[in-house]
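Quick one, T. Sequence first:
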Amino acid sequence: MTDSPAPHYKQPLLKTPFHERARALSQIDSFIPWAGYTTVDVFTTMEQEYFAVRNATTLYDLTPMVKYRVSGPDAVPYLNRLVTRDVAKLKPDRVAYVVWCNDAGHLIDDGTIFRLGAGEYRICTAERQIDWLLDSAIGFDVQIGEVTEQIAALAVQGPTSCAMLKAAGLRGIELLKPFEIGYFSLGEHRLTLSRTGFTGDLGYEVWMDPAAAETIWDILMAAGRSRGIRAIGSQALNMARIEAGFIMPNVDFVSAEHTIRTGRDRSPLELGLGWLVDFNKGHFTGRRALLTEKKQGSRRQLVGLDIAGNKPAHNALIYTDDGGKREIGSVTSAMWSPTCKRNIALAIVDAPHFQVGSTVWAEIYLNRELVWERRMSRAQVVERPFFVPERRRATPPAEF
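Structure tokens:
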């Protein structure tokens, strides 16, 4: 007699195809939910995993990334109406980072668009957006469907990632350019690889049939053993993405679909993503509002901060450089960067204080043995990203 599976209400989160492999490596049983799946937050320690990102090769289970297939004769007009970037310029087998907004020009979400063929695209985003995508498709001859469970994915990131993939048998992987898509085989398994990632480092994302997931995991782990390969969780990835200056939903911005308080939603111009807004491509949702904001100037902006000291400014309030008399913003993400040897943060700062070179003050609270201490630390507005290694874009990457 075999044991029947647990009722759904007792096990509400889905398991990715890599779950058993991840569970076997988990030493502290630290799992978190992501888009309906259970995923690893930390395998061993955040520090070990972070240094693996910057010095070796890492595997991160990307399967919960929500994926939508967009196809049909009107795929390009539809996508150009949906997102702020000109999708018509996206060449075959290329990837583009995009954002989409509501009519007020406030961000609904960000993600990537993969051009997989003539009239066939894939949208990847951190949260489910099917309602917005379907509503935006009214009047277009286009088909939209969620394919999240049909595609398993691994983020393979780090300076030795290319060398590891070559050792695993992916011939020609070194010729793949940033944001380019390539097609490879490992044994009988077909793989799609994109030179993309969320670490700001050399790296790739590997897309495959879920049935091949455990086999591919085993092959990659074996090929990377001599190069210090390590599975990582979300905490280490978060450290890397802050250094890269990347934004994260529900951390650096809240979707305009979810905010309930006035003034809490953000535009792409306020988030420093003006380079993603193409006013010359024709109409898109939010264009009028964003054009008005561009002409009048943004009232606030997400900036990088270089903060004095080495205490991360988590959730710190930001004040003016006149003795801290007026509050002008707040920190959204913060860390001490072991690679940059700097105390860095992303923060929303009011105009005109968000100009690069401006000096502000961060109010930092430290908990020392259950006693809170207050620090006012000088900070300077700096350009982001904070960490931009040459290997990120080098083609072919140097051998490590």
